[in-house]
Design a protein that fits this description.
The chain has 435 residues and is mainly beta. It is 3% helix and 29% strand.
């Protein structure tokens, strides 16, 4: 089974759970039985003490909290997708939030909201689970060479290819591309900024003394698409860190194809919108969810990680013609005096009684100022509204459902193959299984 994180509701009958709370459990409740697989590569997430997933996620693959007293908490509307062989969750205590749904469960106690459900079988289990976890390479992770080696700084939009060896901090600035030749590497830590990528051109083993910290829209993984070609071992709070508090985080809307093993990290974060294809192991794992309603289909419509179309260009900078531009009546008003004012009607009108017409006095008579027939005012031109381009519609991003472990055309759109040594990932076989 390819392991992975990706939410559709199923309805079950309300029956008593193993703990006595009323949660939806569909199918028979069986007595103690062993989990179907103990191979760590058959799981998406493995934690010793606690796994928490955010709301509105589709979960693909198996999830286990293997320690005694461990908990697995599924957020509201989380849904474990069906698959072949049937997927399952395993934890001493399983906590289901409202409308959370898992396929099958190996647990000794179910708590949470009554609308949570187990759609298939629920079986008791002994903890700690006897999982075949990998041996952690402490000597390679804690190698002091990383403390004395130079940092690798990749400037924005630059590309660099590294050969196997020991380095200080890997600092990849925005849009930088780092390619790793096949082999073993040791780093002090990774700081990967927005849209930067780290791609292995062949099988690599990466030993990181402190932590991985990525920002947003990053790609970490093997060009082959095989999780075992990108093996990352992270020290976090191992002996070489002398109890230092360091936590790894994969930034939002990033894609990670590989195995990420940090057994002492008690807060390994997979932020909102991350797609993990492979397996992650830690002491505690926090998977951030979507904080919107779940869409009807689980297709993840992620934004292309180009620098966000920054807020619509200042459309208001286009000067809107002010009425002031309108020609004002200051235009020389055609002088009505120029129209010859022959007061023809001054001709004396004969008086009916024949009284003599009064002689005009020598004082020139003040002629009445003719009321100009509406002085000509040129029509005020209707201001033509400037054509303001409609604001670029902000794409409505449907809440994303993130398939952890499934091949998606999304990878090609998010991280188009670069010219040079980058090869587009191929997902022709299930991750975590060599054939």
């Amino acid at each position: 089974m390819s392991s992975a994180l990706m939410v559709p509701l199923a309805v079950g009958l309300l029956v008593p759970s193993l703990a006595g709370a009323r949660l939806a459990v569909r199918g028979p409740i069986a007595v103690a039985a062993a989990v179907p697989t103990t191979n760590w590569l058959d799981f998406t997430l493995i934690a010793e003490n606690r796994i928490v997933t955010g709301p509105n996620l589709n979960l693909s693959g198996n999830f286990a909290t293997w320690g005694a007293g461990g908990t697995l908490e599924l957020g509201q509307n989380c849904f474990q997708l069906d698959d072949t062989p049937p997927p399952f969750v395993a934890a001493d205590t399983l906590n289901l939030a409202g409308q959370a749904s898992v396929a099958n469960a190996f647990t000794n106690q179910i708590t949470g909201n009554p609308t949570g459900e187990v759609r298939g079988t629920t079986q008791a289990e002994s903890f700690p689970l006897a999982l075949s976890l990998p041996t952690f390479p402490t000597a390679a992770v804690c190698n002091n060479c990383a403390l004395n080696s130079s940092d690798v700084v990749v400037q924005p939009d630059d590309t660099i290819t590294l050969s196997p060896g020991c380095y200080g901090e890997l600092f990849a600035r925005q849009n930088a591309a780092v390619f790793l030749q096949p082999g073993a590497y040791t780093f002090k830590e990774w700081d990967i900024q927005k849209f930067a990528s780290v791609t292995a051109n062949g099988p690599v083993q990466i030993h990181i003394r402190k932590k991985i910290d990525t920002e947003e829209g990053n790609f970490l993984g093997a060009a082959s698409g095989d999780a075992l070609d990108f093996q990352v071992w992270i020290g976090a709070r191992t002996a070489c860190q002398a109890g230092a508090t360091t936590h790894s985080a994969i930034g939002k809307f990033s894609i990670a194809i590989g195995t990420f093993v940090a057994p002492t990290d008690d807060d390994f974060n997979f932020n909102k919108g991350v797609i993990l294809m492979g397996t992650a192991v830690a002491d505690q794992i926090d998977v951030r969810g979507q904080h919107e309603d779940r869409p009807p289909t689980p297709t993840p419509n992620l934004p292309t990680p180009t620098p966000q179309t920054t807020s619509t260009p200042h459309i208001d900078t286009t000067p809107t013609p002010t009425p002031a531009v309108t020609p004002t009546p200051n235009l020389p008003t055609p002088t009505p005096q120029t129209t010859s004012t022959p007061h023809i009607d001054t001709t004396p009108t004969p008086t009916p009684n024949g009284s003599p017409t009064p002689r005009p006095s020598n004082t020139p008579r003040k002629l009445p100022t003719p009321t100009p027939t509406q002085p000509f005012t040129p029509p005020t031109p209707t201001p033509i509204p400037s054509i303001i381009p409609p604001p670029t519609p902000t794409p409505t991003v449907a809440p994303r459902k993130h398939p952890w472990g499934k091949r998606s055309g999304l990878i090609d759109s998010l991280f188009p193959a670069r010219t040079g040594s980058r090869i587009a990932p191929s997902m022709k076989r299930p991750l975590g299984v060599r054939r």
